[in-house]
Design brief:
The complex is a heterodimer of chains A (429) and B (257). With 429 residues, chain A is α/β, with parallel strands linked by helices. Chain A has 19 helices and eight strands. The chains are: A alpha/beta (429), B alpha/beta (257).
Chain lengths: 429, 257
């Protein structure tokens, strides 16, 4: 017997039971969590949060309990492909953000360092890779990556396929847009869709058209929420919207996504109608580029509270692709991938930023300078110059989305605070 | 009517007292471990010298990394805005302000009205800050106050290739063990800091009168190294160390007038 009279064996068992890598693989955990959702809703939890949780729980249960073949994917692989084939996608980069939010990233980062990876690699990839090595992630049946946008993603996911001993596919996205390039990418997607069922039992390409239909349905709802977010003042906290970017990357083609965006749309409509806006006395509207720190940080408390400033929209919440054609799934998914504004010449990204600045009545733009993120940070100087020409102030806020050791909250607060003071001075405050 | 600005920095706390908008006194002291105490003591001292007390102040504005610990402050303002205001008040033609403090460095571009138009700060490490120089001064056993004179004595600069404080310290040890005199090492260190600052100046745009503020502005070696790199003059006004507190005091004066 040890402290509190609890037998040490029982204590060890309890400690083991609450370890995330154990809990995530227990059927009862999902049953308990699913049963709690209606109770939460009855007790005032917002329906869109419940819908999002349902979406995540469903995918995690499918992945961790092995109910469906789990396909690891990099952030910009169209997940319609995986859902449509009867699998469940798992995005280690997005999972890294979730792990950081739940205070679980440190263990994964340490595990990654033990694999010889340098802290210079983006922490979203490091935490994903470390999580796979530490047994925190489900076991993948296959891995699909795309060559856009970041290099670290395809290499770290390749390593994960080696750890799991499963097939690895890379979709090589042409840098320049042309019909020929689109056909080349579509043929690669088709090849993956043909090859995967041969190598992974339980997969079939038959469901692809339906997944594209579901994706379109979600997109329709999503576009309505995006339109509502143009409202001044902002009807949704940007700090929260940045959390849901993870779902935005993960869930296209899922049956749960359209209900989530529908619930969110209803919430935003009610907020606008009631005039019950989350940032009191909104004074400044920001556009946020790249991701945010997902671990516990006070930065947004200052931003949305003390400084009455909203992140009105985020670059990564921009739905850049046209409606998908279920009759031409491969060509359509290729078009979606190639229309990513972060790929190709920087002018495409600049064009989207300029459009969002106008659409969302933006006063200033903040780029979160994620440590090790070449694809985003590489454009900072050009973005700053472009915005200067438009008369829009720009702040490059260095930090890290997952690894809290790579940034100082005090320094981030000073930088953001000074930026808000600059905006305040411009409006004569 | 008295107002005050207090700048609670990582190394030094500074206070400036204004009487009817004019400087009536200033005081600096080490920040130590209790930021609230340091601010209170610094304000006490500057008031005492002017024959008044903190209770008599019409407004206090706090800035610096410990600004949120100043309970008596009517308002907190970031160092960027305060240094901009203070520097412009000290040098009316200032258009670019280089402020190097204990734990960070910043370059601020002002518009014609003296408002902050743009700014950049050092990234995640201590390179280019006062702390970097403090660590090296301790290793060299040369007081920071002597860096300027030693810089002038150096015929050439030793190459310090690393900007990481820890690695640069190793380089200094290595240079000393090879018999290199302190003077070229000091010049090399000042060059390393100036390299970082020059890059930041170019990011906001070189042009117009450049003013240096903050604790490191008193280090003539860094000033000279920066002038060499920018091929431009750098003005260090009297009281440059107090620019942040002065800017805060000016904002306090605006609040009450």
């Amino acid at each position: 017997m040890t402290g509190f009279g609890i037998p040490s064996g029982l204590r060890r068992a309890a400690r083991r039971a609450v370890r995330p890598e154990v809990v995530l693989r227990r059927r009862w955990a999902y049953r308990v969590a699913s049963a709690a959702l209606p109770l939460l809703e009855r007790n005032g939890a917002r329906p869109y949060k419940v819908a999002a949780t349902r979406c995540v729980l469903s995918d995690f249960a499918d992945a961790y309990l092995g109910r469906k073949p789990c396909i690891f994917a990099s952030a910009f692989v169209p997940t319609e492909l995986v859902y449509g084939m009867g699998g469940v996608p798992f995005l280690p980069e997005a999972a890294a953000g979730l792990a950081a939010a739940f205070g679980l990233a440190a263990e994964s980062l340490s595990a990654c360092e033990a694999l010889w990876y340098s802290p210079d690699l983006c922490s979203f990839h490091r935490a994903g890779l470390g999580g796979a090595a530490a047994g925190l992630l489900p076991r993948p049946s296959a891995v699909i990556v795309s060559s856009h946008l970041c290099d670290g993603g395809k290499r770290s996911l390749f390593h994960m396929s080696r750890l799991a001993g499963c097939p690895f596919y890379m979709l090589d996205v042409p840098y320049s847009s042309s019909d020929r390039a689109a056909r080349w990418l579509a043929s690669q997607i088709e090849q993956v869709a043909r090859d995967l069922p041969r190598r992974v039992p339980g997969l079939s390409a038959e469901g692809l058209p339906h997944a594209l239909e579901r994706s379109n349905e979600a997109l329709t709802e999503y576009e309505r929420t995006s339109a509502l977010r143009r409202n001044v003042p902002a009807p949704w906290r940007g700090s929260e919207a940045l959390n849901y970017v993870l779902l935005f990357l993960w869930s296209w083609g899922s049956p749960w996504l359209a209900p989530f965006y529908r619930a969110l749309r209803v919430h935003l409509e009610r907020t606008v109608a009631a005039g019950d806006f989350p940032v009191l006395g909104e004074r400044h509207r920001l556009l946020w580029l790249n991701l945010r720190p997902y671990y516990d940080t006070g930065v947004f408390k200052y931003l949305e509270g003390d400084w009455a400033s909203s992140v009105a929209f985020e670059e990564y919440s921009f739905a850049y692709w046209p409606r998908l054609n279920p009759r031409e799934p491969f060509a359509s998914l290729a078009e979606k991938m190639m229309s990513n504004f972060g790929w190709g010449p920087i002018e495409r990204r600049l064009e989207v930023i300029a459009r969002l600045v106008g659409d969302y009545s933006i006063d200033g733009v903040v780029q979160f300078g994620q440590w090790g993120c070449r694809q985003s940070n590489g454009g900072a100087a050009i973005i700053a110059r472009e915005l200067k020409g438009m008369g829009i102030p720009f702040l490059n806020l260095d930090g890290d989305g997952v690894d809290a050791r790579c940034g100082s909250e005090a320094q981030a607060v000073t930088r953001l605070g000074a930026f808000i003071e600059l905006l305040e001075a411009r409006r004569g405050g | 009517m008295f107002v005050a600005g207090v700048d609670v920095g990582s190394t030094t706390t500074k206070a400036v007292l204004l009487s009817e908008g004019k400087i009536a006194g200033w005081h600096a002291m080490p920040t130590g471990v209790d930021l609230a105490d340091a601010a209170a003591e610094c304000l006490d001292s500057v008031c005492q010298r002017a024959g008044t007390g903190p209770d008599m102040l019409a407004a206090i504005v706090a800035t610096g990394y410990g600004r949120d610990r100043v309970a008596a402050a009517a308002r907190t303002v970031t160092e960027i805005t305060c240094h901009a205001r203070g520097a412009r008040a000290l040098v009316s033609s200032a258009l670019v302000v280089v402020d190097v403090g204990g734990q960070d460095s910043k370059v601020i571009r002002l518009d014609d009205d003296g408002m902050v138009a743009d700014f950049v700060m050092n990234d995640k490490c201590a390179a280019g800050t006062g702390r970097f120089l403090e660590v090296m001064a301790a290793r060299l056993k040369v007081p920071l106050d002597e860096f300027g004179a030693r810089w002038r004595k150096a015929r050439e600069a030793a190459r310090i290739s690393s900007t990481c404080t820890v690695f640069a310290e190793s380089e200094v040890i290595s240079l000393l063990s090879r018999g290199v005199a302190p003077e070229p090492i000091i010049r090399g260190l000042c060059d390393a800091v100036a390299d970082r600052l020059a890059g930041m100046v170019h990011r906001v745009g070189l042009g117009g009168d450049l003013v240096m503020t903050g604790g490191v502005s008193r280090n003539d070696g860094v000033k000279r190294s920066l002038e060499e790199r920018l091929s431009a003059g750098v003005t260090v006004p009297n009281g440059s160390q107090f620019a942040g507190a002065y800017g805060a005091a000016l904002i306090a004066f605006e609040l009450v007038s």
